[in-house]
């Protein structure tokens, strides 16, 4: 896996031949995407949160100490699928109860009444602090807006990359970003993670992380291209990746530990956000080497 090569800047360097295994990596990506796609289809598509499908979010303050599991059990008895999350300080005993529209054709107001009835009947002395409802029409509008804004962000990123780099580098970066977004999004469908506004925020964050990681390597490639050496273009990419490897690991691991802490400590939406970020971080680090770099190689060969 290692080979002794001459460092482009003159000193000895052990270069890792990453791109030697690019076809195995690309095949693995295709298998993962296929498995996630089939799994999403078999599950009946994506689970849309109330932000996009419509539903109810109720904030309630309980008179005594109560656990989120106790609240969830009462809704399970009433055959109502509800997500329960603690809100504020523990001693405040406040929880947010989130449910989708209860039944086909039900209004958000009717669903809100049913949820409040369960809370008031099963937990005497409870105080309803706030009620938020999202109708199906509003949910559809938010979903459409989320798609438009995500595509707009991708388009603006592509324009910046075309302006800042050569076309071959821009194409590599954009393929890596698309790979990471597709993997993260399909992972939601495969595992049943609800797609809501925080998840869209996680995917947009993956956009930025993936681009930043890839640009660092490609910037080093551009520097090394200006220095005459006996390296082939593939070897030059391997050298550049190796030179920036420590920076990639340090950045990825730092963010990974932070996100992992959120996943372990958090619950509900926070846990889902952290999980998608974890998938995106792993995918982003991997795609920089095995998705973006091969595109640049193929571009160079096509030109030749």
Sequence stretches where pLDDT stays below 50 over 5 or more residues = 1-6
How would the global form be characterised? Answer: elongated
- Whole-angstrom Rg: 24 Å
Please state the average pLDDT score. Answer: 83
Number of E-type strands: 6
Proper CATH architecture of the largest domain: Up-down Bundle
| Secondary-structure class | alpha+beta
Beta percentage is: 5-15%
Walk across the major sheet and give the strand order.
4-5-3-6
Structure annotation, total helices:
10
What is the succession of H and E elements? Answer: EEHHEHEEHEHHHHHH
Can you tell me the number of structural domains? Answer: 2
As an assembly, this protein is single chain
**CATH homologous superfamily placement of the largest domain:** Multidrug efflux transporter AcrB transmembrane domain
Percent helix, as a range, is 55-70%
Mind describing the biggest β-sheet? 4 strands, antiparallel
Intertermini distance: 28 Å
Tell me what the structure shows.
There is one protein chain. The chain is an alpha+beta fold and 304 residues long. It has two domains: 18-48 and 139-303, Multidrug efflux transporter AcrB transmembrane fold (Up-down Bundle); 55-134, Alpha-Beta Plaits. The chain has ten helices and six strands, in the order ββααβαββαβαααααα. The strands form two sheets. A four-stranded antiparallel β-sheet has the order 4-5-3-6. A two-stranded antiparallel sheet has the order 1-2. A hairpin with a 6-residue loop joins strand 4 and strand 5. Helix 5 (136-164) runs parallel beside helix 7. The longest helix is centred in the C-terminal third of the chain and has 35 residues, at 269-303. The radius of gyration is 24 Å and the shape is elongated. The relative contact order is 0.15. The model is unreliable at 1-6 (pLDDT under 50).
